[in-house]
TrEMBL record:
Pathway noted in the entry: Amine and polyamine biosynthesis; carnitine biosynthesis
Record protein name field: Trimethyllysine dioxygenase, mitochondrial
EC number: 1.14.11.8
InterPro entries per the UniProt record, alphabetical: AlphaKG_dependent_hydroxylases, GBBH-like_N, GBBH-like_N_sf, TauD-like_sf, TauD/TfdA-like, Trimethyllysine_dOase
Record has Iron as a keyword: yes
Length: 332
């Protein structure tokens, strides 16, 4: 309802705004009754970026760049980025959230072409860029991806001709590291060429990306034929398409594989874009996609062999999506 009401006011505000900009004088707010209580509203912005806002009893409504947004007053006070409320060096709040009155409401509101100014009852002023509000609003986040991706099958990936990064460029230059990370974030896989076939050099590559996560396998582990381990990965059997560490509470975000020595036949690597497959399910079988993204499953790993005794359980849906925009971010 509030978006429809704000959108109704928007054409009137735009007409007034055009005249106001040409004459270069400030608006005088007018009262518009839309319920038993009066609502104060104002329109102000350049012709390129129209902006309308409404001051409601418990929240602030903003129409900016074609998007209707709603902000609770507590949220606006809590996210203040002034020097007394936020430490820009540590990117942490200084304000005690629990000290904010739940019925807080700004005493004064002003909006210019780029910024929202809120003055609170105690005289404290909060400033927000309209672009920042658009990016951090619930409505704005519904329209943007957290991580853009290139979904691929064999044909798409071959035609993309994604280049590998050389070992020297990867270790010695920020450009090489950036190229690797960009490939990984877009496609989910990336390659470093000419890495010396040693455990130490493999570890150097991993640590160039991030810290190495300690798991039940250790930080670095060797995949060899070891029948004392209760895991198919340590046998000579072929492994079909699968996802790893689904039984962790937080599955690994990146795994690094390096073939140090190969004897005999076999050992072919098969890579599949699970996000591409999930999108096909979303488009052609939406009901099944909803089931896979909403029904939690029990993912389990049991190992009892030799000196390895592990029993791990992770619970979660096969497809994990952000609730506000339904973007897929993880698969188990």
């Amino acid at each position: 309802m509030w978006c429809r009401r704000l959108a109704w006011l928007y054409p009137q505000a735009r007409g007034l705004l055009t005249k106001g900009v040409k004459r270069q004088h400030r608006w005088t707010p007018r009262l518009q009754r839309s319920s038993p209580s009066a609502v104060r509203w104002l329109s102000t912005a350049s012709e390129a970026q129209e902006c309308s806002w409404l001051l409601q009893a418990d929240h602030f409504e903003l129409l900016y760049s074609g998007t209707c947004m709603r902000f609770d007053y507590v949220w606006l006070r809590d996210h203040c980025r002034s020097a007394s409320c936020y430490n820009t060096k540590t990117n942490q709040r200084s304000l005690d959230t629990a000290s904010i009155e739940l019925d807080i409401k700004p005493a004064q509101v002003r909006v210019d072409q780029t910024t929202l100014y809120l003055t609170w009852p105690d005289g404290h002023m909060t400033r927000y860029s309209l672009e920042w509000l658009s990016q951090h609003s619930y409505e704005g986040q519904k329209q943007q991806l957290v991580q853009p991706r290139v979904l691929w099958n064999e044909k798409i990936y071959r035609e993309a001709n994604v280049p590998a990064v050389s070992y020297s460029a990867f270790l010695e230059t920020n450009e090489g590291l950036k190229d690797f990370l960009q490939n990984f974030l877009l496609y989910g896989i990336a390659f470093v060429d000419d890495v010396p076939a040693t455990r130490e050099d493999t570890e150097r590559v991993a640590e160039r990306i991030s810290h190495i996560r300690e798991t039940i396998y250790g930080k670095m582990w060797d995949l060899t034929s070891d029948f004392s381990r209760g895991d198919t990965a340590y046998t000579k059997l072929a492994l079909d398409r699968h996802t790893d560490t689904t039984y962790f509470q937080e599955p690994c975000g990146m795994q690094l594989f390096h073939c140090l020595r190969h004897e005999g036949t076999g050992g072919r690597t098969l890579l599949v874009d699970g996000f591409f497959g999930a999108e096909q399910v979303r488009q052609h079988h939406p009901e099944e996609f909803e089931i896979l993204s909403n029904i939690p499953l029990r993912h389990e790993y049991i190992e009892n062999g030799g000196r390895s005794h592990n029993h791990m359980v992770g619970i979660g849906p096969v497809l994990n999506v952000y609730p506000w925009n339904k973007e897929l971010y993880m698969m188990r």
